[in-house]
Specification:
- There is one protein chain.
- The protein has 143 residues and is of the alpha+beta class.
- 24% of the residues lie in helices and 25% in strands.
- The chain contains 3 helices and 9 strands; from the N terminus they run H-E-E-E-E-E-H-E-H-E-E-E.
- The longest helix has 17 residues.
């Protein structure tokens, strides 16, 4: 759930912009603020990223995302951080990149108050290594 109207509006705009960007692709899921279950049979094992993109899955509406049924994890996750979520969003980085093998993880603080720098990008290094590294080029603002 978005903390402020700004966070909610940005989340919706990001999702809708990505849906337009990928409109011609049939095997992609663009969504967000939806439960993503990653261990079959354990309803406690879930995340709800603000925005996510997954390639290689059918494009259709879902009630939630079940990784074992989709046969594919999340490729990109974007979290819009705030005062109350910044610590959790930073902590979840390791879960997303290491356990869930998310390829790219982005953190953005639209208020530029709680995250320094306010935009951070991480890319998974080696699909089996369990390591991640900051994506240095993406941490600088671009105009």
């Amino acid at each position: 759930m978005a903390e402020t109207e700004l966070h909610r509006d940005l989340m919706i705009e990001l999702i809708e912009t990505l849906k337009i960007w990928f409109a011609d692709e049939q095997n992609i899921c663009v969504s967000g603020n939806m439960l993503v279950f990653y261990e079959k049979g354990d309803k406690r094992r879930h995340v709800a990223p603000d925005v996510f993109v997954t390639r290689g899955v059918d494009k259709h509406e879902r009630g939630n995302y079940l990784m074992w049924e989709e046969g594919h994890g999340l490729d990109v996750v974007i979290e819009l951080t705030s005062k109350t979520t910044v610590k959790e969003d930073i902590k979840k980085r390791d879960l997303y990149l290491n356990k869930l093998a998310v390829k790219e993880y982005y953190l953005f603080d639209p208020d530029e108050d709680y995250l320094k720098p306010s935009f951070q990008a991480y890319r998974r290094v080696g699909m089996s290594s369990g390591r991640s590294s900051p994506w240095a080029a993406a941490t600088r603002a671009r105009c």
